[in-house]
Write a structure and sequence with these properties.
single chain; 3-stranded antiparallel beta sheet; 133 residues; mainly beta; 6-stranded mixed beta sheet
Length: 133
């Protein structure tokens, strides 16, 4: 039997790093990856990246957060810092998983009918970090 990869990118093409790997409830974490493609419009589609951090829900702290990555040029390093103070809270204690995803959406001129979809192209990279008191 043969197995095929569902990833659109070559194996090992992307990694996601986090600094620091462990911090406190008020630590700003910085995530870094290399952009596989340039963000923006290419013909009738536009490419974007999202960074998602996930933790089991708890009251009174930031469990899940998804942010769009601004500008990125193909092959360039991209850094995104998540500062809980700027997000309106503190991190929950425990382990978080993080993932950067490349997505494509239709690009349509203003005032024209436009299909509404988001296509996940690839997971660029995954990592995790830990929060203690």
């Amino acid at each position: 039997s043969t197995s095929t990869s569902s990833a659109a990118r070559a194996p090992g093409a992307g990694t996601l790093a986090v600094t620091p790997a462990a911090g406190h409830r008020d630590t700003a974490f910085t995530f870094t990856f290399t952009a596989p493609e340039t963000v923006g419009r290419q013909g009738n589609t536009q490419t974007a990246y999202t960074l998602a951090v996930v933790h089991p829900f708890q009251d009174g702290c930031l469990a899940d957060r998804t942010v769009s990555v601004g500008n990125a040029a193909k092959g360039s390093p991209v850094s995104v810092t998540l500062d809980p103070g700027k997000l309106g809270g503190v991190w929950c204690q425990g382990s978080y998983s993080a993932r950067v995803t490349e997505v494509q959406m239709p690009y349509c001129n203003p005032g024209t009918m436009c299909p509404q979809f988001v296509r996940v192209v690839a997971t660029v990279g995954r990592t995790s970090f830990r929060v203690s008191r």
